[in-house]
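Throughout our pipeline, every protein is held as a single compact record rather than as scattered files. Such a record has a labelled line for the sequence and another for the backbone structure tokens. This encoding replaces a full spatial description with a residue-level series of whole-number codes. For reference, a complete record is included directly beneath this paragraph.
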Amino acid sequence: MAQYSIHGTHNVPLKLWDSAGPFEAGAMQQLRNVASLPFIHRHVAGMPDVHWGKGATVGSVIATKAAIVPAAVGVDIGCGMMAVRTSLGADQLPDSLSAIRAEIERAVPKGFESTQGTNFLKGGWRETPNAISRMWNERFDRRYAAILAKHPKIDGPTAAQLGSMGGGNHFIELCLDEGDRLWVMLHSGSRGTGNRIGTYFIDAAREAIAKETLDFHLPDRDLAFLSEGSQLFDDYIEAMHFAQDYAKVNRELMMLRVLEALRKHLPAFTTDKTAINCHHNYAVRETHFGERVWVTRKGAVRAGAGELGIIPGSMGTGSFIVEGLGNEESFCSCSHGAGRAMSRGEAKRRITLEEHRAAMQGIEARLDEGVLDESPAAYKDIGAVMKAQEDLVQIRHRLRQVVNVKG
């Protein structure tokens, strides 16, 4: 049974998985703005975690023909999740997990800090580990040099942030599933490299569109687009794919370091051979409804039939490992999380430290004012969000946090 509602917008409908609660007025206007673009394929899909974003909502799936909107991809290109299940059980964990959290924080740069030196504020390595330098040299150095040769303004820290977490809603967690098996889960993206690429091409698209005479109204300057066949479009695709690959490897390197940190404190363990590593801010070529199109998932996960994905709730409400059902109406997608219920500023004003501590009871995590904007109350009800997308995914595992690391 279809769980979406249909809202007419010009000739392109919106299909919204909004039964978890009505979308905010600003987000609805952004969805209508996107649907008014002449190169939209079929419809715009809104996931149940939709909330206002830059140009396009977070939690939307946008299929386009012969064009891409850089702001719809966003500036955290390739941001996503990774999860690995270990052979350890809850009974093999120590009573206090504070030493493990501290070990993870030493192993992976987070926020704006460096793991070495308290005054080195860049959220990366003061001295990049040899293994990470080798990975950069083997996988990325030549590709990045080719991008900079055409667009030198993109340059900035690269290898020094590979294998780092960042801040905001990025995190590292230890979780237990319904069988009390221990999982390692983390959330990060392409760091400053992807941010510079995204910001540069959003500005470049605006400048390019300003020089053109369009035969339609562009409702938001942040919906400036690049047309397939142009040099700028080709350059963006090259840089975007670079950032997406960087983000995927970034998560893999973080995971390796977290597992190494755990081995210092826990009994010997193995991990499942198959890890889940999925983007939720990206664009890719796919075939939908018989046509080859660009699919931009801005805060959405691919949920093709049988594909595994990760849907986190918040730092205190658990997460889900899901299997996609391949629903074509959502362009084979699902939500990327619970979605924000409050802006960061509103959360800091409304949520008290006492409320945050109560919500995080039983979880080894930061309990200070610096993370109030990430407190569980700042997010939508993950249970309602999951209920709203039962036709998109089925739940394979429900995870509950025992350790949370934030930047």
About this structure: The two ends are 41 Å apart (CA to CA). The longest helix spans residues 231-263.
